[in-house]
Design a protein that fits this description.
Layout: H1 3-20, H2 24-38, H3 49-52, H4 60-72, H5 76-83, H6 87-92, H7 100-110, H8 115-123, H9 135-151, E1 155-156, H10 157-171, E2 179-183, H11 184-187, E3 192-193, E4 196-201, H12 205-213, E5 218-224, E6 228-233, E7 238-244, H13 249-257, H14 260-272, E8 275-278, E9 281-284, E10 290-292, H15 296-302, H16 318-323, E11 338-342, H17 353-362, E12 367-373, H18 385-401, E13 406-414, H19 425-428, E14 433-437, H20 446-458, E15 464-465, H21 483-493, E16 496-500, H22 510-518, E17 523-526, H23 538-547, H24 561-569
Parallel strand pairs: 4-7, 11-12, 12-13, 13-14, 14-15, 15-16, 16-17
Antiparallel strand pairs: 1-3, 2-4, 5-6, 6-7, 8-9, 9-10
Helix pairs in contact: 1-2, 1-7, 8-9, 13-15, 20-21, 22-23
The chain binds 2'-deoxyguanosine-5'-triphosphate, calcium ion and zinc ion.
Calcium ion binds near residues 185 and 194.
């Protein structure tokens, strides 16, 4: 698929246009096109110009550009545009809080052309004094650079899983591979991943190795051995594939799934019982007899404890819980009955209500909540009061016609810097559900941000706090917030906390989810869908929630429509 490649070029174009100070509508058009191409199910290299124009946001001009790139391998417009700015300058935009205007200023006034330059200047205190740059800004830029450097070498889960799936799709077709599984941190759904670990069993390991290193995704072969090879993909991600015997597959899967900390605990337990665990199996030390290893479950069974799901294998109490028979019954994707955070083309989403209903029904959902942005979020075309009322009416009318499906009329209301909400209560009261979130003022003090969020929770109509820490994995740290206090207030006010499933967010994270559940706070696992394919992000939310030990009962949108409404209404009196 060339889609990601083209999406990246369109995003780069938008970046350069932004640095140039180009027309905001033109910039938005490129970003929107990039978003839609990235998520388009068919390969854009294989469809006609007419079909291309059926992708939302693609007109004849952009369709032409896609075809030019597919046919010639380059895009003249992009090449010309790139000549206008130094190549490192676009990288500056990856520094949190550094926008195109500042990037341009740094280039013009200080001839800063890349991140290394920027770091040097900031360390020497040479940025302050430029328009809009204070000592604090300089400090933040240095913090941002440090964060980018820390993250190099690890990739966000959302970038890695599609790569792994692409490879698995090709491997699993091969008759000489009998079993195949993801292992490592990816199987545990960790939010960042160093490399992909794959495990296979085969009668003919050499054949597997030969096929693997020749996959079209492979850019570089690091090592090719008889049963293990490591490659780097065109996305820059390392993939290790090991081949083991069928009768050791389970033991190897347990070993290479990790975490190391979890496995160390299992091995200690084994030793105490005169047993030994390694990647080949579980053995009786005295007799050297192999007791199991074909299936992963063998290990747990022989240690006389229930099977522990991969997402929990971090040695954070799961072994104790298993021994006491107190493992949670983790939530599963099929438990989810709907999505409570969805955008339409009223604000910055790509689809109308009917398209979203069809897509949600296709996923077997019973309901979704429409939660566009509120007016304060102008960059996302937030809805005026007239618009939200109009949408609300439209949803009420649609619901009368819908069978076995409900649309909740909602809003993602902006929590302003002072903690007030972007719409008055008289408006919020008319809606079925209110999702509230912070989109600005990320640099406020911990006290201020905590107070903003807790005051929003004290509003009787606010049902859910969305992406509660604002992090973007690898791009933006969470803002400072007193999570303890947020969770206590959530419990006290019966407000649910979102597990935002958008792969770069995963917010709340696993640790905070676990804490929330311990306190009895309700969660809502939502995708924040802007384009239909993003409904599938739910799997990331589920993986993350399972890492936080979430059960079905902890999750608002795992309940039926009636249960959901009951839970929302628990917080406030019946609405209009
Ligand atoms: P990462 O850093 O995101 O790749 O995390 P993992 O957990 O995938 O770590 P990785 O790729 O280094 O190793 C995969 C699994 O292999 C790991 O979870 C457990 C096992 N493993 C790796 N190194 C060791 C080790 O030194 N001792 C033991 N017992 N197991 C190891
Ligand atoms: Ca790994
Ligand atoms: Zn949203």
């Amino acid at each position: 698929m060339r889609n990601q490649e083209i999406a990246k070029i369109f995003n780069d174009i938008a970046d350069i246009l932004e640095i140039r100070g180009d027309n905001p509508f033109r910039i938005r058009a490129y970003r929107r096109a990039a978003q839609n191409i990235d998520g388009f199910a068919k390969d854009v290299a294989e469809i006609s110009a007419e079909e291309l124009q059926e992708i939302p946001g693609i007109g004849s001009d952009l369709a032409g550009k896609i075809q030019e790139y597919v046919q010639t391998g380059s895009l003249r417009f992009y090449d010309e545009l790139k000549k206008e700015v130094p190549s490192g300058l676009v990288d500056l935009l990856s520094v949190p809080g550094l926008g195109p205007k500042t990037a341009k200023l740094l280039l013009d006034k200080l001839h800063i052309k890349d991140i290394d330059d920027l770091e040097k200047h900031a360390k020497e205190g040479r940025l302050k004094g430029l328009p809009g740059i204070q000592a604090k800004t300089e400090e933040n830029i240095l913090k941002g650079i440090a964060m980018i450097r820390r993250h190099t070498g690890r990739f966000p889960l959302g970038r890695v899983l599609p790569v792994a799936e692409g490879i698995i799709d090709k491997l699993k077709e091969k008759p000489f591979i009998s079993r195949l599984n993801i292992a490592g941190s990816l199987r545990r759904w960790k939010d960042t991943i160093k490399d992909i670990d794959l495990l296979a069993s085969s009668q003919d390991p050499q054949k597997v190795m030969d096929f693997f290193v020749k996959l079209s995704q492979v850019k570089e072969i690091i090592m090719k051995g008889p049963t293990k090879s490591s490659v780097v993909t065109d996305a820059g991600i390392q993939v290790d594939l090991r081949v083991v015997n069928e009768n050791s597959f389970g033991a190897a899967l347990a070993y290479f799934t990790g975490s190391t900390a979890h496995n160390v605990r299992l091995r200690e337990m084994a030793v105490k019982r005169g047993l030994k665990i390694n990647e080949y199996g579980i053995f009786d030390v005295k007799t050297e007899r192999k007791l199991g290893g074909e299936h992963e479950g063998d290990i747990y069974k022989i240690l006389e404890m229930p099977y522990i799901a991969p997402e929990m294998r971090e040695d954070t109490g799961e072994i104790e819980a298993a021994l006491k028979g107190r493992l949670p019954k983790l939530i599963e994707l099929k438990d989810i009955k709907g999505d409570l955070h969805v955008h339409t083309n009223y604000s910055d989403g790509s689809h109308d209500l009917q398209e979203l209903i069809d897509a949600a029904k296709a996923r077997g959902y019973e309901y979704i909540a429409i939660t566009d942005h509120s007016k304060g979020l102008a960059v996302a075309r937030g809805l005026s009061i007239e618009q939200i009322l109009e949408q609300n009416n439209k949803i009420r009318a649609l619901n009368k016609k819908l069978k076995d499906f409900k649309l909740l009329s909602g809003i993602e209301v902006d929590i302003r810097s002072d903690g007030t909400l972007d719409y008055p209560d008289e408006i919020l009261k008319k809606l079925d559900i209110v999702v509230a979130s912070v989109h600005s003022g990320f640099r406020q003090s911990k006290e201020q941000i905590t107070k903003r969020i807790t005051s929003a929770m004290r509003n009787p109509y606010v049902s859910i706090i969305a992406h509660p820490t604002g992090r973007l994995i690898g791009e933006r740290e969470a803002y400072e917030v007193d999570m303890e206090e947020v969770l206590n207030t959530a419990k006290e006010t019966e407000t649910a906390i979102e597990v935002n499933a958008y792969p770069l967010r995963l917010d709340l994270n696993d640790m905070h989810i676990k804490k929330a559940i311990e306190k009895g706070v309700s969660l809502s696992i939502n995708t924040d869908t802007h384009v239909i394919y993003q409904f599938d992000f739910m799997a990331y939310g589920i993986g993350t929630a399972r890492r936080g030990w979430a059960e079905k009962k902890d999750v608002l949108n795992a309940g039926s429509y009636d249960e959901l409404i009951k839970r929302i209404r628990k917080k406030c009196l019946p609405r209009d």
